[in-house]
Write a structure and sequence with these properties.
Length: 108
């Protein structure tokens, strides 16, 4: 198995979908195919654009990050996508890292 990554997709309605995978090209193909292997959210979408990705490492950390990102309000997710944080910055932003934060509270 490969390194686990967090990814965020944007659909034609400008909605954001957050997921994790250890094989991102395969997972994106599943989402875009719209079949039973894609998430329910993405099945009816006509366009899905990858707007953010971050390699995280193991599955346990990826699940923690995914849960925290999914709990963010759309405005905060948009700020995250715009900032394109690297791994350490993302972990810091979500209070899963050791030092400082990437985005100030005013960006949220």
């Amino acid at each position: 198995m490969g390194t686990w990554s967090l990814y965020i997709l944007r659909n034609e309605r400008n909605a954001l979908y957050t997921g994790i995978s250890n094989d991102l090209p395969r997972r994106l193909a599943e989402h875009r195919a719209g079949g039973c292997r894609g998430a329910r959210f993405t099945r009816g979408c006509t366009t899905l654009d990858l707007v953010y990705t971050c390699k995280l490492g193991d599955r346990s950390l990826a699940l923690k990050v995914e849960l925290r990102v999914k709990k963010l309000h759309k405005r905060r997710k948009e700020a995250l996508v715009a900032a394109t944080p690297n791994r350490q910055q993302l972990l810091d932003l979500l209070d899963l890292g050791v030092t400082g934060a990437l985005l100030s509270e005013s960006n949220f």
